[in-house]
Amino acid sequence: MHVKRVSIRQGIQWIGEGLRLVRQSLGPLSMLTLAYLFALMLLTLIPVIGPAAPLILVQVLSVGLMEAVRMTDRGETPPLSTLFAGFRRYGSTTRNRLIGLGLINAAATLLALAAAASVDNGSLIKVATGTMDASELQSIDQELLWASLIFAALYMPAQMALWFAPIFAAWHGLGIGQSLFYSFFTVWQNKGAFLAFMLGWFAMAFAASLVLQAIKWLAPNTPLLLSIVLTPLSLILMTALYASYWPSYRDSVSASEP
C-alpha cells in the first residue's frame, strides 16, 4: 500500500465524482444510503447502549457503503445486501477490528462532547441526541458555537485517524493500530485536498439552504412544496457526500483491493 500526494483541487473534484456516481446509479445508491441511515437510527433503540451503538457500528456499515460505491464506479449495480458486507464478507477477525474502531470512535466522540459540555452545560449533547427543543436552542447560540468549536478541535484528529481506517482494516487486513496510523498519515499528507473537500461540501450545504429559503420566501404558506423539495434534495446530497468518500480513497491510496 502506497500513500499518494494529491493536489488541493483534487478535493473539489472528489465532490464532482460523488455527484457523478449518484447520477450514474441514483436508485441503488440512494436506497443504500436510506438503509444506512435507517440502520443507524434503529441502533439508537437498543436498550442501555442505544446512543453509543451507532458510533460503534458505523465503522462496520461504512465498509459496506464504500463497497457499494466502488461497485458503482466499476459499472456494477450494488444490491442492498452490500451494506452488510462488513459483517459477513471479511471474516470474524476483521469484523472485530471494525467494532474495535467503532469503540474508539465512540470514546473519542463522547470525550469531545464531555469537554464541550464544560462551556455549554451539555447543550451540544442535547442537540446531538435530539433532546433540545427550539426555544432552548435560540437562547444559547453563542454557547453552542463555542462548544461546537471545542468539539470539532478535539474530535478532528480522531476523524482523521478513522477516515480510512475501516477500509484499511477490511480491504488491506491491517490491525486497528496500523489502520488508524495510516489513515491519519494519509489525510495529513493530503490535508490541503481534504480541507478543500470539507469547504466544498459546506458550500454545497449553504447553497442548498439558500434554495430552501428562497422557496419559503416565494411560497411561504406551502409546507408541502418545501417538503417535496427538501426530502429528495437532502437524500441526493447525503448520497453524494458518502459517494465522494470513495474517490478520496481511490486517489490517495495506491493498492490492489479485493
Structure description:
- The radius of gyration is 19 Å and the shape is globular.
- It has one domain (about 5-250).
- The protein has a two-stranded antiparallel sheet with strand order 1-2.
- It has helices at about 10-25, 25-45, 55-75, 85-90, 90-120, 125-130, 135-140, 140-160, 165-170, 175-190, 190-220, 225-250, and strands at about 1-5, 255.
- The protein has about 260 residues and is mostly helical.
- It is built from twelve helices and two strands; from the N terminus they run E-H-H-H-H-H-H-H-H-H-H-H-H-E.
In short:
This protein has 258 residues and is mainly α. It has helices at 9-24, 26-43, 53-73, 85-88, 91-120, 123-129, 134-138, 141-162, 165-171, 176-189, 191-218, 223-252, and strands at 2-3, 253-254.
State Rg: 19 Å
Share in β-strands = under 5%
Largest sheet: 2 strands, antiparallel
Mean model confidence by pLDDT: 87
Low-confidence stretches are none
Count of the separate structural domains = 1
What distance separates the N and C termini? 13 Å
Q: Strand tally, please?
A: 2
Along the chain, the helix and strand elements come as: EHHHHHHHHHHHHE
Helical content class: over 70%
The rough form would be described as globular
Q: What's the arrangement of strands in the largest beta sheet?
A: 1-2
What structural category do the secondary elements indicate? mainly alpha
Give the count of helical stretches: 12
